[in-house]
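Run Small ribosomal subunit protein uS15c through structure prediction, thanks.
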Amino acid sequence: MDKQGSIDSQLSSGNKNTGFAASQIYYSTYRVSKLTSHLELHPKDYSSQIGLWKLLGKRKRLLAYLFDKDMDIYLRILKKLGIRGLKGR
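Sure, done. The structure for Small ribosomal subunit protein uS15c is below.
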């Protein structure tokens, strides 16, 4: 899978485990960008909006988990992906 290979190559630790929180965050960010571009073309696609909201919630929970477990990887992911950190943390 080419998409997964590019995500794994971006991971600084080189961990090939797809269950690893950092790789899940990378993959969900990729899916968020795809859904966002889809919703720009189809603004009334409410099913995709709900899917995007669920995906953002899952990514937020994964970021909170990573924040608690390993702050160094959390900060590297935020910097590399260019996403905002969690509020109040």
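Residues 46-69 form the longest helix (24 residues).
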